[in-house]
C-alpha cells in the first residue's frame, strides 16, 4: 500500500473511532442521569427483557453476563449466570468489570452496585409504550442511529402485532378471555402489557385494569366472570383443577383452554422485543378455539 493510502486509512479509522467514542448521558427510569465517556462495551444485564432488547439491537456481543432467567436468544445461554434480578451475585458481577449494569427499577441492588463504583441503568418495561421507550434508551446507550436501531426494531414489533390482530378470525372478536400468569391465581389484567396485546387482538379481558396489572384473584372472581376462553401456562393447569367452582366455567365446560408450554410462557410474560411472537402465539390460541375447534378430548390442553 502506498504511504498516502496508508495514511488515509489511518485517518478514516481515527475519524470512525471519534464518532463512536463521544460522551453519552442516559437518564434511566429512576430519573437518574448516568454519564458515559463512550458507549459501553462490557454490559451486564440482570433482566431478561433488557437482555433481549440489547440483542434485538444486534449488540449481543457486548453482553458479558446475564441473570439466571435470560435464555433468549440462544447465544446468551453460554454467558456467565449472575443470579437473579432481586438476588444478583454481587461479587461475580463486580469481578467481570462491566461498563454498566442493566437491571429493573424494582431491584434493590442498584445502590450496592453504585457504592462499589459500577454504573447502573434501571429500566423496566411494563407496557407497550414502555417497551418502545426502553428500546430507545438502549439504542442511545449503545450509540446506534435511531432510524436503523430502536425505531426500526419497534416498527417491526408493532407491525407484527398488528398483523397478528388481522389474523384473528372474526368469529372470535370480543370473546371474553382470562389469562392466568401464575398460580394463585395471578392474572393479567387489562392494564398489563399482556392485556394490551389481548385488546389489540380484538378480545375482551375479563380482569379490569382497576385491579392492577397482575392482581391475585379470589378464584370465585373468575367463576363469576365466566370467560369464554382461558389462557394459562402448563405449570398452572394442575392448580386450576382444584379451584372451587371452576369446572362450571364456560371455557372449561367447552374445553376452550390453551395451556402454553414453558418456552411459550417465557415469551408471553416478558415485555420486550418478542411481544410480536407473543401476539402470534395468542392469536393462534384464539383461532384454535373459535375458528377451527378441535373435536379431540385434549382440546383443553392446546399448545398453539
Structure, described:
The chain has helices spanning 3-20, 48-56, 90-95, 110-115, 128-141, 150-167, 193-200, 219-225, 237-241, 250-253, 262-268, 275-290, and strands spanning 24-27, 33-36, 43-45, 63-66, 100-103, 120-122, 176-182, 186-187, 204-205, 229-233, 257-260. It starts with a helix and ends in a 14-residue tail after the last helix. With 304 residues, it is α/β, with parallel strands linked by helices. The chain has two domains: 24-144, Nitrogenase molybdenum iron protein domain (Rossmann fold, 3-Layer(aba) Sandwich); 170-301, Rossmann fold. The chain contains twelve helices and eleven strands. Strands 7, 8, 9, 10 and 11 form a five-stranded mixed sheet that branches. A four-stranded parallel sheet has the order 4-3-5-6. It has a two-stranded antiparallel ribbon with strand order 1-2. The chain is elongated. The longest helix is centred in the first third of the chain and has 18 residues, at 3-20.
What are the defining features of this structure?
304 residues, alpha/beta, Rossmann fold, 4-stranded parallel beta sheet, 14% strand, elongated, disordered C terminus
Q: Could you say what the CATH architecture of the largest domain is?
A: 3-Layer(aba) Sandwich
The CATH topology of the largest domain, please?
Rossmann fold
Distance between the termini: 59 Å
Assembly status? single chain
Series of H and E elements: HEEEHEHEHEHHEEHEHEHHEHH
Roughly how much helix do the residues carry, as a percent range?
25-40%
Q: Can you say what the CATH homologous superfamily of the largest domain is?
A: Nitrogenase molybdenum iron protein domain
Amino acid at each position: 500500500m502506498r504511504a498516502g493510502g496508508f495514511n488515509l486509512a489511518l485517518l478514516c479509522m481515527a475519524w470512525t473511532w471519534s464518532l463512536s467514542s463521544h460522551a453519552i448521558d442516559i437518564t434511566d427510569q429512576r430519573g437518574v442521569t448516568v454519564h458515559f465517556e463512550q458507549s459501553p462495551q462490557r454490559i451486564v444485564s440482570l433482566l431478561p427483557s433488557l437482555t433481549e432488547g440489547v440483542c434485538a439491537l444486534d449488540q449481543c456481543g457486548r453482553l458479558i453476563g446475564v441473570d439466571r432467567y435470560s435464555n433468549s436468544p440462544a447465544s446468551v445461554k453460554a454467558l456467565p449466570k449472575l443470579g437473579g434480578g432481586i438476588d444478583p451475585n454481587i461479587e461475580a458481577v463486580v469481578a467481570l468489570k462491566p461498563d454498566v449494569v442493566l437491571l429493573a427499577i424494582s431491584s434493590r441492588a442498584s445502590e450496592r452496585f453504585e457504592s462499589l463504583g459500577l454504573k447502573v441503568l434501571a429500566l423496566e418495561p411494563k407496557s407497550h409504550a414502555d417497551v418502545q421507550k426502553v428500546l430507545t434508551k438502549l439504542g442511545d446507550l449503545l450509540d446506534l442511529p435511531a432510524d436503523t436501531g430502536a425505531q426500526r426494531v419497534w416498527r417491526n414489533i408493532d407491525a407484527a402485532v398488528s398483523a397478528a390482530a388481522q389474523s384473528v378470525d372474526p368469529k372470535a372478536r370480543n370473546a371474553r378471555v382470562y389469562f392466568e400468569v401464575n398460580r394463585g391465581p395471578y392474572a393479567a389484567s387489562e392494564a398489563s402489557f399482556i392485556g394490551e396485546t389481548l385488546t389489540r387482538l380484538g378480545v375482551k379481558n375479563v380482569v379490569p385494569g382497576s385491579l392492577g396489572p397482575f392482581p391475585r384473584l379470589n378464584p370465585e372472581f373468575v367463576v363469576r366472570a365466566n370467560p369464554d376462553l382461558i389462557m394459562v401456562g402448563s405449570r398452572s393447569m394442575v392448580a386450576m383443577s382444584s379451584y372451587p367452582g371452576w369446572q362450571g366455567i364456560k371455557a372449561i365446560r367447552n374445553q376452550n383452554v390453551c395451556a402454553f408450554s414453558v418456552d411459550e410462557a417465557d415469551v408471553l410474560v416478558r415485555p420486550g422485543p418478542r411481544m410480536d411472537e407473543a401476539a402470534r402465539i395468542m392469536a393462534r390460541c384464539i383461532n384454535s378455539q373459535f375458528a377451527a375447534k378441535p373435536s379431540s378430548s385434549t382440546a383443553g390442553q392446546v399448545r398453539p
